[in-house]
Amino acid sequence: MNDDAKLVESLKTIASEYWRPDSPIYLSNVPRILVKLLPNFREILGERTLKNFAKATEAGGAYCVIEHPRQGISIFS
User: Is 54 helix (H, G, I), strand (E, B) or coil?
Assistant: First the structure.
């Protein structure tokens, strides 16, 4: 499994374990969880932002990134 695939799997895990309809997981909270699952995620991202990576991989990643106009960005499973 390559590094990008590991990051996608970690995002899938976070989305499925932390998102609830009444309490979504905001993308701004993901890094503090992600660093526990994949300590080198920032190296894997390189110049990419987590938001751009998540949006680019959401179709095959079993998660969806939603941009809410008032509440910020949430990552859903």
Answer: helix
Residue partners of 74: CB distance under 8 A and separation at least 6: 19, 24, 25, 26, 27, 65, 66, 68
- Give the pLDDT confidence of 19-35 residue by residue, as tens digits: 888 888 889 899 999 99
Nearest to 53 by CA among 17, 7, 18: 7
Enumerate domains of the chain plus CATH numbers.
Answer: 3-76 (3.30.420)
Distance CA 60, CA 58 (A): 6
Spans of the chain, pLDDT less than 50 = none
